[in-house]
Amino acid sequence: SDQITPGSGPNDFVITRTWTFTDDCDNTSSISQTITVDDETAPMIQGAASAIYVTCDDSDDSCPYDAYQTIAELETAANVMVSDNCSTDQALSLAFVDNVAAASCSGSSNYQPERQVIRTYTVSDQNGNSSMVDQEINMSFSACTALTDFGVVGFGDDLSINVPAGCTPPMIKEISPVQGSASGYVEYMWLISTEEKSPGVPYVATTSNLGSVWLIIDGQNEPTLSPTAVSQNTYYIRCSRDISCCDFGESNIIGAIIDPTATCPVVGPAVREDCDDSIVLLSPSDDMTSGAQKIYRTNESIEAEILIMGNSALMFDAKKGTTLQSKAEVARGSTLEIMLDGCDN
After folding, report:
1. What is the C-alpha to C-alpha distance for residues 55 and 65, in angstroms, rounded to an integer?
2. Which residue has the higher pLDDT, 204 or 73?
3. In whole angstroms, what is the distance from residue 341 CA to residue 128 CA?
4. Given this model, what pLDDT does residue 108 score?
5. How does DSSP classify residue 342?
6. Residue 36: closest CA among 19, 18, 12
7. Which of 39, 99, 178, 314 is the most buried (most CB within 10 A)?
8. Phi and psi (nearest 5°) for 98?
9. Quick one: which of 42, 84, 37 has its CA closest to 321?
10. What are the two backbone dihedrals, phi and then psi, of residue 72, each rounded to the nearest 5 degrees?
11. pLDDT exceeding 90 applies to what percent of the chain?
């Protein structure tokens, strides 16, 4: 029989193998053997993920595409083989991230008939080594299916906040999400402005005092935005579109207003510095709301069967060798991360 325990190094584990011998008279004796396994090799992926071609039909709001969730499905449908020197297929984990290729929209066309998603799979072993492979998902559309609602964003529930100069505002999150995506893929773009028609007269929810100069914030294409520090009244709009369309629609405008008497909010995820006993997170009481960020540290077992809603982040900092039983459902745009430090930091 084998008993597996964490090793002394960051990438090794120890197998204590007990041999039991029995003779014809049912006399038995045992001897133990210690096998230290140093695993610094990533899983091997042979072949390349096959491209997928799908047609989106906006008549019934459907756009079927394959979303492989297991190693077996990836190997079968994407024509790849996965192997690892120190892990079985059952011990490997699979995750993927989608990146939508930028649209090339002409001025006379109100939709893009073909779009491409690059799905990057990451295959990881039980010691944190990983490999990646890309897959093309090519979509074609019969027409633009415009979003019916472009959502509401805010600093928490606030559409305007007062901050001192030099302050970094808190994350801008969804108060309500976009609606009406037939394809299941929504693209986002964030705009920023510091122009006011009457300088020094700030924007409020009932007043339109803004100019026409809005700049794209490069590299920000997620549903949420982490602003940089502001030194003057600063305003934000989130634009979104279904990938079958060229035209973006706008959310509400929100503003960070300079007020020397205000206090700069504390930004960043809520961190648990204590070391938990065995962690149990179960639906529906422990389901994470949109935009939530949590971290749990433990040297014991973890049982998680929860929903991680859109744009949320859940981190387990578990000691190597900890038992993890997870059935977490992770919404697009959210993350589930597992560290191996436990309560050591």
Report:
1. 9
2. 73
3. 12
4. 44
5. G
6. 12
7. 314
8. -100, 135
9. 37
10. -60, -45
11. 16
CB 137 within 8 A of CB 185: no
Pure H helices in the chain: 71-77
CA distances, 168 to each of 233, 234, 246, 257 (Å): 12, 11, 32, 12
Cβ atoms of 246 and 111 closer than 8 Å = yes
Q: State how far the Cα of 209 lies from the Cα of 203, in Å rounded to an integer.
A: 6
Q: What is the three-class DSSP state of 143?
A: coil
List, as one string, the DSSP characters of 84-140. Answer: -SS--GGG-EEEEEEEEPPP---TT-SB-SEEEEEEEEEEE-TTS-EEEEEEEEEEE
Query: Mapping DSSP to helix (H, G, I), strand (E, B) and coil, where does residue 2 land?
Result: strand
CA–CA distance, 121 with 95 (Å, rounded to integer): 6
Parallel, antiparallel, or unpaired: how do β-strands 81-83 and 152-154 relate?
A: unpaired
pLDDT of residue 272: 46
Which tens digit of pLDDT belongs to each residue from 168-184? Answer: 999 998 888 899 887 77
What's the CA gap between 126 and 96, in Å, rounded? Answer: 17
Task: Give me the count of residues in the chain.
Answer: 345
CA proximity to 186, closest of 81, 290, 15, 310: 310
Q: Is the pLDDT of residue 190 over 90?
A: yes
Contact 245, 145 (CB under 8 A): yes
Query: What backbone torsions phi and psi does residue 342 show, to the nearest 5 degrees?
Result: 60, -135
Edge-first strand listing for the sheet containing 324-326: 279-282, 302-305, 324-326
Q: Please check whether residue 194 is in contact with residue 217, taking contact to mean a CB–CB distance below 8 angstroms.
A: no
CA separation for the pair 171, 265 (Å, rounded): 10
- Residue carrying structure tokens 């991680």: 308
Alpha-carbon Rg for the chain in angstroms = 25
Structure tokens at 310: 């859109």
